[in-house]
Amino acid sequence: MYKLFQRSKRGLAFLLVALLATPLMSVPSLASSHMDAPLITRDPSANTTDVYAFVDEEAGQQKSLVVALGVYPHQEPGIGPNKYNFDDNVLYQIHVAVGSDVAAGRATFSYQFRFNTTFRNRNTILQSYTGVVQNVGDASQNLIQRYTVTKVDNRTRRITPLGQGIVPPNNQGNATPFYNQGDNGENPAKAGVAAEGQLDRYTQQSIANLSRGYVSFAGQRDDGFYADIQSVFDLLRLRSPGKDSQGGFNLHLMALDIPIQELGGDGQVVGVYATTSRQGIKILRGHDDPIEFGPFVQVARQGNPLFNEGLVAIADKDRYSRTSPTADREIFSRYALQPELTRLANAILGLSPAAPETNRTDIAGIFIPDLIKVDLSTPGVRFAGNGPNDPVNPDDPGFSRLSIFGGDVLRSRIQDPFRNGGFIPGGWPNGRRFGDDVVDIGVTALISDLRDPGNLFIRVAGDGVDTNDLGFNKVFPYESTPQNGRNHSHP
Fold first, then answer.
1. Measured between alpha carbons, how far apart are the two ends of the chain, in Å?
2. Is this prediction's pTM over 0.70?
């Protein structure tokens, strides 16, 4: 059953007034089901899922901006003989905008991930594992993927190689026991942990310390996005309890820990988005592998979740995938200002009073241009763990999956939009953390009227899915352990 209720707490209303008073801190829309545009669904290894960006500040370590990009959605764990992997022919990029580039939607720095796949033995059907993988890259890991990370300064075109890493094996089960509870391949995947030394063996061995203070990871993880997307797109017939449409599936994740000084210091708000690209010419050569060459052509992009999937019309979905955020104001702003999902909610759910369907400047504030904005001046964010009451790895005190709607705020040193001493959202829409329930926040934004700070109407709603099926790590790379192919379930 779909539940709506109005929340009138003065503190929440006060925070929302400030939230809407600045274009840097607007309430977001829904989240991604990873099937954003027609053409990219045919190219899963280049298909982006979600982008994450948040400030981390661990004791004794330098302050950093953590960014992450998920690709290759809906991986059924444990298939064979071929496995899901990063694509050597795809250029994966995470972009960061600073200064005036944020408002322009222009990437100042681009961090490129490129992969290279080799096999220890091609004369076997055992493509990925020839035995139990004791350590990443050992003789039993037949398929080996390595990658390079490169920083590109788009202002000067300076290219800086940062280093390389190795991709851990996918979680098959008995072949990869150390991902799983009790280091036993028959058991489900391990829960989230609070310290790096508690991470599973494969993940620990795959965290790469690069030059200039960067840290990277690339490998298979559980899909940490949770929502009843099936119901959202089934005529908005939400149910209680909801069902996590991504539950039990894996994806491939690239994560990068960026030292704040590499971006010019923490006295600023930055913007983050990601793209995937392929070379424009492909030649098939009979029995030989195809050749791809020519300039790279962008095939997908991802910033804030659901904009292309849930707001942009079919006529422009593939166009969005191929364009830059610099074009968003001219081409796509109408979809944010007049969101079709709000009109459908009014018609299907019979909302009273009806949610505004036009001049949605609150929705446009987050998507135009479509970058995730992050205030770097705040302390490190609060993290999700295995839930608020977990005895080993509970959520950080003060963490709320609803971010600002749950009273989870941080203090900024560079802005005071609330006129309350600089307190701003602790998660979405100030960046995005693993564990943020962006669907519930987004549904609330779309069916409320948040345009006039002096006359707010807030109608809080949810999809009935409040947690991910696996807990999160509170240390890099943060995303949950990949699901065990031998022992997992879908809701």
1. 18
2. yes
